[in-house]
């Protein structure tokens, strides 16, 4: 009988069987023997040439002035009414053309005014200037004469670098706390708007401003064409008697009703002139014309 060949078992082994036990101390010794020291030659960075230094400074200035140029351009577009061929108002134009809200456009214009002031009054040897509108925004709350001082303090707090919005805001807050003047205006008091150094008040200079809300550093006032919030430095009291203030309030309310009815532009100009009177009453002729407009509005 044929006997089948016997199957041989394959020899098996684990990795532990194949590798001898290793002493950790031997590993450390072996690793140290394998370490190789490589000398890396130092790469010499060439100094900027005078021309490159000039180019760098020029380009840095462009970056710094980007928001300033935007604010200046917006102000010119508004002042020259270069939007009038396509849009009824500057606010509509900015929204459609640049995607700006009204607030955003005016913040850029305000920042440009502050930047101009810093360039004029800060140390010319110190080239640290704001690089965006957010850094400048707190300075708009200060008088122009104090803005350079506040900015220099912020630069010092930032160790000679461009300060952040938070640093500038803290400096401005401390200055305002030291120089805070109490708001003494009363509800119903009649003031005159001083538009100097405030682009948002352009066209409002000399207008009647009837105080409707008293805040810490501002007053909300009603004028012949609506309400707005004005800083204390942009208001001057007329010091009218209470009965005069009441009379101005009544006249202002009448003017506003006619203005809101949407009559012709020439009529609006007349209403604006009434809203800038330096007296608390209308002449007989002014009263007659206003009554005619009120009748026309009803019809």
For this entry, give a set of tags:
299 residues; alpha+beta; SH3 type barrels; 2 domains; 5-stranded antiparallel sheet; elongated; plasmid
Helices and strands in order, then pairings?
Layout: H1 15-18, H2 24-34, H3 50-64, H4 66-79, H5 90-98, H6 102-121, H7 133-136, H8 147-157, H9 165-179, E1 190-193, E2 208-214, E3 218-223, E4 226-231, E5 235-237, H10 242-260, H11 265-274, H12 284-298
Antiparallel strand pairs: 1-2, 1-5, 2-3, 3-4
Helix pairs in contact: 4-6, 8-9, 10-11, 10-12
Can you describe this structure?
It is a single chain. This protein is an alpha+beta fold. The protein has helices at residues 15-18, 24-34, 50-64, 66-79, 90-98, 102-121, 133-136, 147-157, 165-179, 242-260, 265-274, 284-298; strands at 190-193, 208-214, 218-223, 226-231, 235-237. It has a 5-stranded antiparallel beta sheet with strand order 4-3-2-1-5. Strand 3 and strand 4 (226-231) form a beta hairpin. The longest helix has 20 residues, at 102-121. It starts with 14 loop residues before the first helix and ends with a helix.
Number of helices: 12
Oligomer: single chain
Record the strand order, biggest sheet.
Answer: 4-3-2-1-5
Span of the ends, CA to CA: 133 Å
Task: Quote the average pLDDT.
Answer: 82
- Net shape: elongated
- Overall number of structural domains: 2
Question: What ranges have pLDDT less than 50 throughout 5 or more consecutive residues?
Answer: 7-22
Overall strand count: 5
Beta-strand content estimate: 5-15%
**Residue share in helices?**
40-55%
What class, by secondary structure content? alpha+beta
H/E topology pattern: HHHHHHHHHEEEEEHHH
């Amino acid at each position: 009988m044929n006997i089948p060949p016997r199957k041989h078992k394959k020899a098996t082994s684990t990795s532990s069987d194949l590798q001898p036990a290793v002493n950790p101390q031997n590993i450390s010794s072996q690793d140290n023997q394998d370490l190789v020291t490589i000398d890396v030659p130092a790469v010499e960075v060439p100094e900027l040439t005078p021309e490159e230094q000039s180019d760098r400074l020029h380009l840095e200035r462009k970056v710094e002035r980007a928001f300033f140029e935007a604010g200046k351009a917006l102000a010119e577009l508004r002042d020259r009414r270069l939007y009038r061929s396509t849009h009824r108002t500057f606010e509509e134009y900015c929204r459609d053309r640049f995607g700006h809200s009204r607030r955003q456009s005016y913040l850029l214009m305000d920042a440009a005014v502050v930047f101009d002031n810093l360039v004029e009054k800060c140390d010319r040897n110190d080239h640290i200037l704001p690089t965006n509108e957010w850094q400048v925004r707190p300075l708009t709350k200060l008088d122009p004469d104090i803005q350079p001082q506040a900015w220099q303090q912020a630069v010092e707090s930032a160790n000679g670098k461009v300060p952040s919005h938070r640093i500038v805001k803290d400096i401005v807050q401390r200055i305002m706390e030291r120089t805070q003047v109490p708001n003494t205006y009363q509800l119903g008091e009649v003031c005159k708007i001083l538009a100097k150094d405030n682009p948002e008040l352009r066209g409002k200079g000399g207008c009647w401003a009837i105080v409707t809300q008293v805040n810490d550093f501002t007053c909300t006032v009603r004028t012949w064409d609506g309400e707005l919030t004005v800083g204390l430095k942009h208001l001057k009291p007329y010091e009218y008697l209470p009965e005069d203030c009441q009379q101005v309030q009544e006249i202002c309310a009448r003017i506003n009703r006619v203005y809101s009815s949407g009559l012709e532009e020439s009529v609006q100009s007349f209403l604006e002139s009434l809203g800038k009177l330096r007296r608390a009453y209308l002449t007989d002729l002014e009263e007659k014309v206003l009554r005619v407009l009120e009748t026309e509005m009803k019809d």
